[in-house]
Write a structure and sequence with these properties.
With 379 residues, the chain is of the alpha+beta class. It has one domain (2-368). 56% of the residues lie in helices and 7% in strands. It is built from 16 helices and 7 strands. Strands 1-3-5-4-6 form a 5-stranded mixed sheet. Helix 6 (155-181) crosses helix 9 (212-241) and helix 11 packs across helix 13. The longest helix has 30 residues, at 212-241. The structure holds zinc ion. The site of zinc ion has 6 residues, from helix 6 and helix 9.
C-alpha cells in the first residue's frame, strides 16, 4: 500500500499542473479519519480485483488524497493504473457539514440526546465547511466561537456525525471508482472528450460553449455523471444491506441506522455540490448535470433498482430527502422535501428522465468495450 501511495504521489506530481499527494496515517490524530476512509475504500475496491477489460487489461485502482484547498475529486489513469483522488478541502467540507447537521435538534432525533442540541445557524450564510475554507484560506484562525457553533453537543451525536462523513466520503470514492470500472475514462479519451474526470470543472470558455461538438461532448459527460452516481449510490446501500461494512463504528450503528445515514449522505452530496459550485463560481451545469437533477436521479435509482433488495427503500428514501427540512430552518436555501416529492411526480421531470434513460442505454452500449468486468474463473 505504501508503494501504491508513492505511485499515486508521483502520478499527480508529474501532471502539467502538478498536485501534491496528502500523506495520511492512522497514527496521526489530524489524518486518522482520512486513513480510515482510505483503508476502507482500498479494501472495498478489492471487489474489482479480478476485473478485466476487453483487451484483457486488469483493473488496478489506487486511491489517495490530494493536498488542495479547492474542493474537488478526480478519476484519472496512466494507462496501466487508475487513480481516484479526493482533495483535502472536500474532506473538510464534508466533515463540517455532517457535524453541523447533527448539531440540529430535528436531524436524526433518535440518535443520542438531540434535545440538548442548540440548532445553530451557519456563521455567514455559507454552507458549513465552505465557511471554514473561506476563513482559513484568508489566513484567519478558527476560534472557539466556530466550534461552539458547529459541533454537536451530545457525544453520541458527535460520533454519529463522524460516521456520516465517512459514509459521504465513501460515496465520493465509489463515484470515482465507477468512472474507472464502467469505462468512462477509456471512453472520454478515445473520443477526445477529456483526459480525466474532475468533479468540478472551471476551465470552459464561452467560445468553447458555443461549439456544437463541445456541447455534444458535454451532454455525454453529464450522462457519465448520472451513471457514476447511480453505481455509487447502489453500491453504498448494498454495503449496508449485505453486511459488507468494514468500518467497525458504522457497523455498530446497526443496519437500519446505517442504511438511513447512507441514503441521506448521498442526497446531501448533491446539495453540497450545489453549494461548492456557487462558492467556486463554476459555470453552472456544464460538464455535470444540475445537482438537483442528480438528487432526482438517485431517488429514481433507489425506486427502480433497489426495491427488490430493500423492500422499504421508497419510504426510506422519502424520509431521507425529508431530512433536508430539519436543516431548512437555519439554511433556508437547502432542498425542500415537499418540492422534491412534487417534482418526482411532475410530468416535466418524468419526461426529462425518460430522455436521460434512453440516452444512457445508448451510451452504455458504447461503453461496453471500455468497461472492466469480473473474469469468470477458468476451469
Ligand atoms: Zn464524476
Amino acid at each position: 500500500m505504501i508503494s501504491d501511495y508513492n505511485q499515486f504521489r508521483s502520478f499527480f506530481a508529474s501532471q502539467d499542473v502538478p498536485e501534491k499527494a496528502f500523506d495520511v496515517s492512522r497514527d496521526e490524530e489530524t489524518t486518522n479519519l482520512h486513513a480510515v476512509s482510505m483503508e476502507s475504500i482500498t479494501a472495498l475496491s478489492q471487489w474489482t480485483e479480478n476485473s478485466y477489460d476487453r483487451k484483457n487489461r486488469k483493473l488496478q485502482i489506487i486511491p489517495g488524497y490530494i493536498e488542495s484547498m479547492t474542493p474537488n475529486a478526480v478519476a484519472d489513469s496512466d494507462g496501466s493504473n487508475f487513480y481516484i483522488g479526493i482533495n483535502n478541502a472536500l474532506f473538510v467540507i464534508i466533515h463540517e457539514f455532517s457535524m453541523f447537521c447533527f448539531a440540529q435538534q430535528n436531524f436524526f432525533p433518535n440518535i443520542g440526546d438531540a434535545n440538548n442540541e442548540v440548532s445553530p445557524e451557519p456563521l455567514d450564510g455559507r454552507a458549513p465547511g465552505l465557511w471554514l475554507l473561506n476563513h482559513t484560506t484568508k489566513g484567519e484562525r478558527v476560534s472557539d466561537l466556530h466550534s461552539k457553533h458547529l459541533i454537536p453537543r451530545c457525544s453520541e451525536r458527535y460520533v454519529a456525525s463522524i460516521y456520516l462523513a465517512q459514509i459521504m466520503l465513501r460515496y465520493v470514492w465509489l463515484h470515482e471508482l465507477a468512472h474507472c470500472c464502467n469505462g468512462h475514462i477509456g471512453y472520454i479519451r478515445d473520443h477526445k472528450i477529456a483526459s480525466r474526470v474532475h468533479e468540478l470543472e472551471t476551465g470552459l470558455s464561452a467560445a468553447q460553449l458555443s461549439n456544437n461538438k463541445v456541447i455534444q461532448n458535454l451532454e455525454q459527460m453529464q450522462l457519465l455523471e448520472y451513471d457514476a452516481d447511480s453505481v455509487a449510490f447502489a453500491g453504498s446501500v448494498r454495503i449496508q444491506n449485505n453486511g459488507l461494512e468494514n468500518v467497525e463504528g458504522i457497523r455498530n450503528l446497526g443496519k437500519d441506522q446505517a442504511v438511513d445515514l447512507t441514503i441521506f449522505g448521498a442526497f446531501a452530496m448533491a446539495w453540497l455540490f450545489e453549494e461548492i459550485q456557487a462558492y467556486l463560481n463554476v459555470r453552472k451545469n456544464v460538464s455535470h448535470p444540475a445537482p438537483y437533477l442528480r438528487l432526482h436521479n438517485l431517488v429514481r435509482t433507489a425506486n427502480k433498482y433497489l426495491e427488490s433488495e430493500l423492500a422499504d427503500i421508497r419510504d426510506r428514501s422519502q424520509s431521507a430527502y425529508e431530512k433536508f427540512d430539519s436543516i431548512k430552518g437555519v439554511i433556508p436555501k437547502i432542498y425542500s422535501g415537499q418540492k422534491i416529492a412534487a417534482d418526482l411526480e411532475s410530468n416535466d421531470f418524468q419526461l426529462q428522465f425518460l430522455k436521460i434513460d434512453q440516452e444512457m442505454t445508448a451510451l452504455r452500449d458504447k461503453l461496453q468495450i471500455y468497461r472492466f468486468d469480473p473474469k469468470p474463473i477458468e476451469t
